[in-house]
What we know:
The protein has 308 residues and is of the alpha/beta class. The protein has helices at 11-22, 39-45, 61-64, 88-109, 141-159, 183-192, 211-224, 241-252, 276-282, 290-307; strands at 2-6, 26-31, 51-53, 70-73, 112-118, 164-169, 172-173, 195-199, 205-210, 230-233, 237-240, 257-261. Helix 1 (11-22) packs across helix 7 (211-224).
Amino acid sequence: MRALVTGAAGFIGSHLSEALAAEGHEVVGVDSFTDYYDPERKHENAQALHVLEADLVTADLDALLEGVEGVFHLAGQPGVRASFGPGFELYVERNVHASGRLFEAAARRGVRVVYASSSSVYGDAETYPTREDTAPRPISPYGVTKLCVEQLAYAHARVTGLEAVGLRYFTVYGPRQRPDMAFTPLLEALADGTTFRLFGDGSASRSFTFVGDAVAGTLAVMERGRPGEIYNVGGGEEATMADAIALAESIAGRTLALERHGAAAGDVRRTRADVGKAARELGWAPATPLVEGLRAQWAWVAARVAAA
């Protein structure tokens, strides 16, 4: 198929675009190359891709969707901590307004959309593992905007006939991970002997998801996901940050220098994905143990640091 990937130069988007191309699909990649983090990292991600620079808030979306049979909407303003304060306006624009415009255009052209949401919509969840029917109670403005995107998709499905399926990513890691996420600066500190800033006491735990598994789940959602549904795409292994640090030190054969800080605003204490729905309906389950995924990310980080 001819597929449009928004956020194609980003962490997950670049891996997804490469996977689609490897399967023989024609990929139309688009990215706005914002400065949330160094845009050069995005250009590095997109070296093997053809990515158009465009902002979904202002772009001619009908032109972008010409001949497209499926949309993977991964573009957005990421980050929990930065969503507090005056920066929130960017989250509304790049998550809510951009998604609304894309949903409208896709509905006009009858194109199926798979859109990325986040485990952040659950906040401090009522139960663990957390199922998709758990009441969403985000505790960060970022999580609020991602929940808003889900509700926009539902509204457009009811009113404009949009065919959309959502997925909630749980803490994706691996090569090309953004520098504001924990594992990249942690591994960079191990590689170059600098200090890693740890927020909290290390007991916060996450359902860490390797990027290859996240991509496989995303493709499965496009192929088999039921319109109007939302699926958790999360790792099968839950680990605390203290566990992850110890594992990273073992892989690198080095000791990490820590600079400790209090827990950051908007960070939840725990995430653990219930992926039973994805297993039953999509035939998908995470397959990469944390030790293997972290080893792959270490190899990528170490190579970048050595080449710098």
